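Worked example (supplementary).
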Amino acid sequence: MIRNLRFRKRTSVSISRRILTPIIFVLLAFVFCGFLLAAVGSDPFAVYARMMKTVCSYSGLTRSIEAGIPLMLTGLAVSFGYRMNLNNIGADGQYALGSLFCIGFALYGPVMPAPLKILCMFLVSMLGGALAALIAAFPKAKWGVNETILTMMLNYIFLYVMDFLMYGPWKERNQMVAQTRAIREKYWLPDLGDSGINSVLLIVIAIAILLYFFHTRTTWGYEMEVIRQSPRAAQYAGMSVAKATLLVLCASGAIAGLAGFAQVAGIIHRVQANLPNGAGYTGIVIAFLAGLNPIVVLLVGFLFGALQISAVAVQLIGVPSQVAAMIQGTIMLFVVAGEFFNRYELVGRKK
Amino acid sequence: MKKKLISICLAAVLATAVLTACSESAGGTAEQTAEAEDAAKEDAQAETPAEDAAPEEDAAPVEEAAADETAAQAATEAAAVPAAETAAAINLIGEDKRDQAPAEGTDFSSLKIGEIESYIVDDGGWCQATHESIVAAMKELGIPEENLIVLESIDDTDQATTQTAAEELINEGCTLIFGASTGYASYLPEIAAAHPEVLFAQWGNKVDNLIGYEIRSYEGMFLAGYASELLSKDTNPELGFSASFNEFSVRTAINAYALGAQYANPEATVRVASADSWYDIDKETQCAQSLIDAGIKYMGMEASSPAIPETCQKNGAFVVGYHNDMSALAPEAVLVSHMWNFAPIFKNIMINAAEGTASTSDFYYWGGDCSKLSDFAAFVPEEVVAEVTALQEKIQSGEVQVFAGELKDNAGNVLVADGEVMSDEDIIFQNFFVEGVTTSWKIGE
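After joint prediction of all chains, the assembly is encoded as:
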């Protein structure tokens, strides 16, 4: 029986399948974790109810968004690169350099009116992210050097630069925490009314919508799609693959660098050692799960933020912190595994 | 087109290099002058002595004006902010309160305590030391164990996670919450301000809205250095030190260790090897190994993993344990361990919290049994143990001061003049290495 089964690549995936598969696999993950929880002596239903209670409370929602914003941006960055088959594993480092440029400009840059300064912070953080990506993009475009390895290795370099600045010259005076001092309050992006949600969320949403239209409505978006499917065909059609590679990777880096802007201008108003905290890697999973669709990235980013927040609460009902982390990991793993069934289907072998 | 692009790239990379190089010369005057100018121009209070006198809120109205008005004017206004307003912010709790007994009839059973840890409570290091101290203090006061709620592995670099943890503890009814990692100091004040009915106690230097606690760990480190040098001085006056990050508290530990060694033998020196990480088994192993390869037999440590004692044991070298009693890890190598004991401070905080006398301006900076040594290993000669114990008593009585003059840094500058004692602030924020310390680290602040 089993010998007669094999996987076949799907030619097309229906919308309902796209939506249903991840949901089914999240539920499967909860069932699986249920057994794990029962094995360590906790009541799975009570644990899940507690997670929901935290996320569904108002402060839980705002904090999920807060935790989700950098993830959304790194997710957007990775998915943008992947649209042209460029694996940008370096969103962590680009985020780091973007935040360093942003805080450097905010604290040590020239005096200017607040709106202009915020705009400049926005631009320099993009510049920082783009520069970080450029170091990998240039060899890739010129000599075809593998961008996966380059971007990944560069992460270490930028995170060490960050450590150096945070523990060294840029450290806040007379504080033990490895962080810079906070930027002036007039440079903070305001909250949306009394909601407790920062207006930087609007910027993130705007970027996602822009990217969506870029992919579906512009010639450049179309060129990217052609290059993704066949670089050679694109070359024959007169498109410059090298130029596109350079620009797309840099743009991807710029979006990741904006996560630094979101933190500095919107959320924590300063930079600390290890600020990205793996957001660049989580961004890869998010981009993948969202099927590279910028709008869906926002939703998945929010859900990952919620998952992070809810894992805190389950400890309160006696679940060990390791098991809480395991629930997080299991859900991620199951959803990624579920993606497989979006791409392949199980069919009987023809006799 | 292509050439233009390349030249732009090159210019950008160069600009980054210059930027980094500029910040690297931090100690130098150029950066400080630039900072001072910047401060005068915009912040009106940043890196000048006025900064300490004027907290951000006080300077806020001044700052708005500063953008338009001249720098000189702004600077004067900032200096004019009365210093008295901030001086009241810290209420240093004296060590004489150590054995404060709770008032008759104080009800502790309603005191619900929350604990936020950056890692697991049985990590064999920092978190375990904090957790055991909380449990010990509760036990002494007769607070039932179920009144303690622990949240582990709360990332102290993540605002959303930290604040969620604090709010969840408040929702569970906690009225006293301990933040046991330095990073929480950035995120808890906001929560504390929104919940004035809840007390927060935060490890590290004093920040607004949180009770601060710290330990004079240099006293124990001084004893550790003294013990090591007593054993080492006849064969090799040079000691080693395996350190984590180039950071205030670590520098304090290294300096105290060196001063203790020099108390035993004025010729003693300390060579530092650093992992540049708070927890890294591989790098810490390399640190210990490199010191041993350089002929060092006795070393101190300020690191978290069990790698250093184990490497010492493998090579027949000796180490003073850190955080907790490490003798079980490497019984042949650990001479004695320097232990963090927060229990006396926590007990005092809990009493004040229950009696309603605690204030968010309280700051604890205690030594004595807070910075204690474990029992010595059996192989340490008895006369050494006796001498260390005698020195311990001298420190407690105040006869011996660790950071007292004449004290020079390792570049030969006099830090404390003869007959004077270093201020607590300078002890906490140490930006120097004392004479006799060899390290590749530079002071970056």
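Two points are worth noting when inspecting this output. The first strand of chain B starts at residue 91 and ends at 93. Chain B is about 45% helix and 15% strand.
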